[in-house]
Design goal:
A two-stranded antiparallel sheet has the order 1-2. It starts with a helix and ends in a 7-residue tail after the last strand. It is built from 5 helices and 2 strands; from the N terminus they run αααααββ. The chain is globular and about 45 Å long. β1 (about 110) and β2 form a beta hairpin. It is about 60% helix and about 5% strand. By secondary structure, the protein is mainly alpha-helical. α1 (about 1-20) packs antiparallel against α5 (about 75-95) and α4 packs antiparallel against α5.
Length: about 120
């Protein structure tokens, strides 16, 4: 099942790249900003609950799709770009096992526990 889910996420990354290819932005921008959504982890400096909230908002695929569709509706390429970037980033995160966070700790995700304590 894990392989099937990872394959699904790779297809969503492909969709993100396909949608981005229709925008008038350089691929360099996509590459440069690809890790920018991880800045949402800064919320963990306040507390695990707040950090999980900020991280989950930015890494939620519904939010990414909503941004893209709103950008499409408003003919706003910047929103479309943000949506494609968030979708692609969230998808590749899930391929590597980084899921949405539970509010108790960064390591507890909807895909399981990440980090050294999961190494055994």
């Amino acid at each position: 099942m894990k392989t099937l889910l990872k394959l699904e996420e790779l297809f969503l990354l492909g969709l993100s790249l396909f949608l981005f290819s229709g925008l008038d932005y350089s691929w360099g921008w996509y590459a440069l900003l690809f890790l920018a959504p991880d800045l949402s982890m800064i919320g963990y400096l306040r507390s695990p609950r707040f950090g999980s909230w900020t991280y989950n908002l930015i890494h939620h695929k519904g939010f990414a799709i909503a941004l893209y569709l709103l950008g499409n509706l408003l003919a706003n390429p910047a929103l479309q770009f943000a949506g494609t970037l968030l979708l692609g980033h969230s998808s590749i995160d899930r391929v590597f096992g980084y899921g949405l966070k539970y509010p108790d700790a960064f390591q507890n995700t909807h895909l399981g526990v990440i980090g050294k304590q999961n190494a055994s």
